[in-house]
Amino acid sequence: MVAMESPHAGRDYPRSLGEFQAWFPTDADCLDYLEWLRWPEGFACPTCGHSGWRLGDRRFMCSACGARTSVTAGTIFDRTRTPLTVWFTACWHFATAKDGISARSLKRVLAIGSYQTAWAMLHRLRSVLVRPGRDLLAGTVEVDETYIGGEEPELRGGRAKGKKVLTVIAVELREPGGFGRCRMAPLIDASGTSLETFVTQSVNPGATVITDGWMGYHGLAKLGYRHDRRSPRAARASGEDPNRLLRAPHRVASLAKRWLLGTHQGSVDGAHMNNYLNEFVFRFNRRRSRSRGMLFYRVLELAVQHGPVRYQDLIATRRPREKPPVPPQTHGCSPSLERPPADRPWRRRSIHSG
Ligand SMILES: [Zn+2]
Question: CB within 8 A of 216, min separation 6: which ones?
Fold first, then answer.
């Protein structure tokens, strides 16, 4: 793949809501943008990589193997019944709202009847956020586990964990202070196998990994990490404040919890926690990004590089909360957001009354 120069605001992605609306008034404009994102150097056959030509029906034909394909085939927009103007509007809100958007709010914003459609669109967008082969965390990394999600314990009485999910968090420490990037994942248990799998998939070998004294971390040194085990007692002995141990994962966990309660009002079930954590990590790692439009570009760029996500896979473990799925004939068939010029409706009254 040809390395592209970094994208320009106002040329490669819209700088503002106004620009977004001006660039993408029709489904055809959206499709052209996806084509440009997927094949910046022109059509390349997904099967054999050769070039080809455009057919009359907006598909492409490979000049070498003869395969016919469309811009959206093999991406998360494959066979979508939701018009691209609706997808783009959903993606704009998802990417540009500082804390994202809930399915309930998106349903309102898009003025679509189906909560399920909004819910599934957001989950498909979330599922593209983890780029295969992304860089591992490096340098000095703090790792710890905690319970995240579910309802607040006081609402349920006692110490019921409800739908809380055991979650492991890794955060880079910056010199002289502050946090770098983070990674999070739900865990089945806090065993050595689970924790070591997470660390090897998230942190560069050779990095310094700081953990507490939990035995699940004992194998890290053998895996090539410089393992720095801290205990409150050792911290006190060396004059450190034990409350500041593993401060980075604690801080990230509390931000994630606040985000789940704020944007999603805690209505996140354990089965989909991985997807929500991926969204949180995506936002956290881009928290210093100056341009929100750039995030819109990044999400769509990932979306055309990601394979289809079937609805069955999204609901495999648990159905969306609000309503059972609606019958197939109405599922996903939201009207396009294409809009004809409105012709200054605010002037109409004076015509009628005048
Ligand atoms: Zn081909």
Answer: 190, 191, 192, 194, 195, 196
